[in-house]
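Researcher: Structure for this, please.
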Amino acid sequence: MKQEQVTFSEFGKPFQEKLAFTILEDSSFANQIGEVLDYNFFELNYLRIFVRKIYEFRDQHKKYPNKSTFEIILRTGLENEPESVKEKVRKFYASFLTGGNTVQVDYVKEKAVDFCKKQKLKEAMLTSVELLKHSSFEEIRKVIDVALKLGNNPEIGYLYNIQFDERYEIKSRNIVSTGWDVIDNMTAGGLANGELGVVIAPTGAGKSMVLVHLGAAAVKQGKTVVHYSLELDDKTIARRYDSCISGIPLNSLNAKKDFVFDKIKNLEGSLIVKEYPTKSASPETIRNHLSKLKERGIEPGVIIVDYGDLLRPVSTRKEKREELETIYEELRAIAKENNCPCYTASQTNRTGLNEPVITMESISEAFSKCFVADFIFTVSRTIDDKKTNTGRIFVAKNRFGMDGVICPITMDTSNVSIKVLEPTTETKAEIEANVAKKQQKKLIEKYDEHKKEKQKEKKPATLKNLQSLDKIKDSLLNGDVDA
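Model: Predicted structure, token format:
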């Protein structure tokens, strides 16, 4: 069913003429109403042409015409219009230069923007009716949300030349420390309001432990941390915070309960852990929960999502990578909306399972999720690393300083203790070669032990076995680790 065209007719001709001329005079207002204005809202054709010429010039020249330029447009740019229309447009412009219209500008601006915004909202609601048939709630919300935001901001943006001095004023980023001096030095102090940090690691490497460390560091700084868990239950997460803050091993928390409470009771910050089943929550779920917290007077200081890959996508896409991309875009938007940093994690693909150093190539599914993040670091822990409580962090992306840096770490998962050491001078290739040599050495030691055991048996059948072991050992010594 075709919708009847709505116009400014209820406001009358003087109102519409004042509006058209105000768009020419006030570029800031022209930007604001331009987001929601339909030329057909003007009841009179000569006003539609007048306003359309203003925006056509803006689109072509990236700025609005001044009066002198617009007079030339009215003389030379109406060749395709009938003579009667040309005369009305020029006559209207001349009449306004004499100041004959007495309708107040502020009234016109307010009523015109309100009218246009309501029409855009109606369009969005009609679109939503169709989306109800086949789309998700998040898609419908976004359609309505966009309509509500249109026409709100009259600012045209940061003027590069005019506002030169402002970008050299010293401003605080309102930084939240990571709890690691080495990382803070690389990121100008840590992450700040509206920034997104991503931890990348294979399964079992300690992504959740790292997120707990970052949250605990923020709590110690007096921040309110809202920690969303989509994998572990809320009490397990809370116990990890207990262990991280108190230093008591996870398996000794019950016995040291009073000591732990003494450690956490006087903390300046606070922690809220919200658990959701895997893939049951979307970024919109998190957004709504944060809104409820604000209604209770709780302002988040750091948001942690454990982890982003386990969120339900905002909309269903053909490719999983596209769904993941939208999730990370939404998480960064949530950080911006709540004026605080957000941390999340992502899982590597299979190639990162036992890599001594994990680079961006090992990120699973959506490489594009890296684009929106401000700071990305990977955590790698081989089987031997886990035995010795060691590992490596690789700074993959850093908008605040150097990246491509490898830092050794100590990670004791028994009490969520993670320390980042000074960057190593070794390259990724050198580290991989050293790890391979260590593995080779251990294999040779194992073969030697096994050979000694066989020699003790003193059986005729073992001679052939010993010769086979010697061949394997020779292969290892020649660098064939796969032997």
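Researcher: Any notable elements?
Model: Residues 96 and 127 are 39 Å apart (CA to CA). The two ends are 74 Å apart (CA to CA).
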